[in-house]
Amino acid sequence: MSRHRHPEGNRLPALERNILKYRAFEMMLTLYYAEEIKQFLVNTMKTTDHFREPAKKRFPKGLPNYRAVVEKICKEGYITAAQRDEIIKIVDYRNDIAHQLQKMTFDISRSTFVRSMREIEEPKYDYDMLDRAKFYRRFLPDKALRHGFVSELSFNSLWFKSAEQTYEPGARQAQRIESDEMPLTMVEQVRRGGAESSTDSSRGSKVFSSACISRRAR
User: Fold this and answer.
1) End-to-end CA distance of the chain, in Å?
2) Is-above-0.70 flag for pTM?
3) Which of 37, 43, 147, 152 lies 20 to 30 A from 121 at CA?
4) Could you report the per-residue pLDDT of 148-162, keeping only the tens digit for each?
């Protein structure tokens, strides 16, 4: 038997399968919200400049990219430098999901070789990113750019509504482990802290070397 092969086979236990399902639902939502943020910034600036006098246009030669918008509204005081950096981080994270999906999931594996890659490659998955993307999707149109800007009408949220209503409950359902109702985020905290999960043990998906795990909800 290969030294990289788990004695119970390649199929992940229920705990790890739930973690991957949870991440999949969150990544789909994050992809959408991050793109909405990006498109809102670009379209709002283009539409606003369209109705401004030539001498007052923020980008008289045309808008180069969304980052130029973020830098401009930060410079003008509509958002803080910290908010600017976080918006850029969210959109960059969206690009990681789209182009490096394997780096969002490789740490959940039964292969000892794949898991050993964590020593040289940091997993890119971030459990906080969805909440931050949701926040800025509301914050930018409702507060930061509510006055003095012209927003473009969009039907994107209507088109995505059914999917959103499906993914949100799906993520909440996958978040809880059926046996102990343990939040997956708590499981991940244990994993990052060095506790062994069932991918490293042959005793099943309920076994953790952590002495005690709080059962509070996320």
Assistant:
1) 40
2) yes
3) 37
4) 999 989 999 999 999
